[in-house]
Design brief:
The chain has about 675 residues and is an alpha/beta fold. Helices cover about 30% and strands about 15% of the residues. The structure holds NADP nicotinamide-adenine-dinucleotide phosphate and iron/sulfur cluster (SF4).
Amino acid sequence: MTSLYPHLLAPLDLGYTTLKNRVLMGSMHTGLEDAAKHTPRLAAYFAERARGGVGLIVTGGVAPNIAGWAKPLAGTLATHAAAKRHRVVTDAVHAEGGKIAMQILHTGRYGYHPFAVGPSAIKSPISPFKPSELSARGVESQIKAFVRCAALAREAGYDGVEVMGSEGYFINQFLSSHTNKRKDGWGGDYSNRMRLPVEIMSRTREAVGRDFIIIYRLSMLDLIPDGSNWDETVLLAKAIEGAGASIINTGIGWHEARVPTIATSVPRAAFAWVTRKMKGEVGIPLVTTNRINTPEVAEALLADGCADMVSMARPLLADPDFVNKAARGLNAEINTCIACNQACLDHAFKNKVASCLVNPRACHETELHYDRTLKPKRIAVIGAGPAGLACATTLAGRGHNVELFESASEIGGQFNMAKRIPGKEEFHETLRYFGSQITRTGVRLHLNTRADAASLIAQQFDDVVLATGVVPRDPKIKGQDSANVVSYIDVLRGNAKVGEKVAVVGAGGIGFDVSEFLVGDGHSATLDLKAWKAEWGVGDPAESRGGLKRPELSPPTRKVTLLQRKVGKPGAGLGKTTGWIHRSALKMKQVEMLSGVNYDGIDARGLHISFGDKHKNPTCIEADTIVLCTGQEPLRELEAPLTAAGVKVHRIGGADVASELDAKRAIDQGSRLAARL
Ligand code: NAP
Ligand code: SF4
């Protein structure tokens, strides 16, 4: 059989070792790296990805010493005893025929602890701790820590290491005059500032020998003021190659950059052009990265000569079998990462073990099992939104006989509205995945069928799962029956005529989505790389330092005011790593955001509001249309009659708890119930 992806699946010969294909599982912090008790879980997580066919795994960041910790007690490799513990991970990966490199991550001024160090004592905007400026001896001891860590990684059985030199961490901080104000031999002009990574690389190569992979993650586009220019980046890449690197991986954007680099609204492969620019400058393999989430995109980049390998981190959380499925032509069955960050990065930044919104087994491989059932049951699942889809397909995959009832003409529930928002096109992929799983697992799907209690009782199912979702909450605002008031559902389904001046009531996830939908002209910048780069001010690092230029903003198509009753920043409840992007996107479209309001009434002029308990500053937000985005209530009308008839009923998703309903909880709950039944 001819491979659909000849470039992606081609081996890569490094001389002393061969990678079986061009997929590098990029480093992704899961939280499992940080406690010895989690080592068996970490081993199971990586072993599953190795079994899935990935060419080379890179672990989450491991600190070379205490100063390099990301947070107190972060995973560290500085002793022989620690190296012995890591053996559990490397043995598990090797047993599956995989290869694994350990990332050495020194966070420098990004460290969230009082022992943080940096080239200069300059606090970062993302940590409250000001780093101590290293003495020349201190610099030397950090280099030694990197080298010792790499040697211990080899002792632990790793096939290589990745030296983290990008995203604004310690090494990157030496490179940029933004953070390096030193006057000694480690600061000043660029040749001094780049000494640190070159010393680390050459001494590491000397310590580990020639037959060990050393990847250097090089910041090719800093996206910060005073970032590197292209000449400096090329100079560094050549020096890193000369110092003995096996592979150069691409790093895009410091963590403090105000340009999104991996969120779902970033176009696919948005930064592959940066790696391509480096092609030909060095002779060693280059890895390209960021928002590459399908085998088609990866193949096209490699075929196009952008890079020698592609890095995918989150896509392998979403589907550990990504590579094997691609190799077998089962691409429709790949569970695609939608770049939401909700269960992976948002968890990591909240000190919770990571997982994946579309795959709750990620990082939970030792406790969430979908074993084949020995006693197949007849189970009805009512509602084909994310919760019902996850539950029905997992149940059927385990061998149960499952009937899935959906009143609409298509599967997807709330996802069908989400996918209409510019920048949320990836939701189509999840629906495509679940569609393929319905076929594969043999779920009997009944569309356009509103299940009623009498017929469910008559069919004598062993279990009935209610995944009936939600209905919009009634905010009970005086005058809300006026002709100028519509619900978000009418707007997103295209059933409402929306005027030029709009008030959006409710600033939760949906209020933000609806506002973004209404200020745009229907053209999604996520599908148009040139427009997206212009909007966020991403330029060529050969023309401006850090690759930043003035954003080109297009005017909004409507004047939107977004309101909430709570005091405080609107959108505070949005994702930890993505909320700022939604707020910035609305600011760029001049959306006015008001907090702490009372809704005093609605009339033909618009929405009458006042502020605070004492109803101060009454005013009218003049609006042609008022859109209600005031949350949801559970829809569970079937529960009482079914329970009364003695049917075993289970509630999941929004039908269970509507407040702060999100797809992460819905899919997790549906999958976990399916694992138990
Ligand atoms: P939500 O996040 O619960 O927000 C509901 C909004 O309505 C809040 O701003 C709330 O603010 C307001 N509200 C609640 N009761 C009200 C009442 N009686 N009268 C007037 N206003 C009221 O719900 P959602 O926006 O419908 O989103 C549902 C879920 O989908 C969210 O939890 C979210 O996780 C998920 N989602 C997320 C995103 C995202 O992260 N980008 C996007 C879409 C959906 P006040 O009470 O302060 O007025
Ligand atoms: Fe991708 Fe979202 Fe899963 Fe993270 S949680 S891996 S971003 S789908």
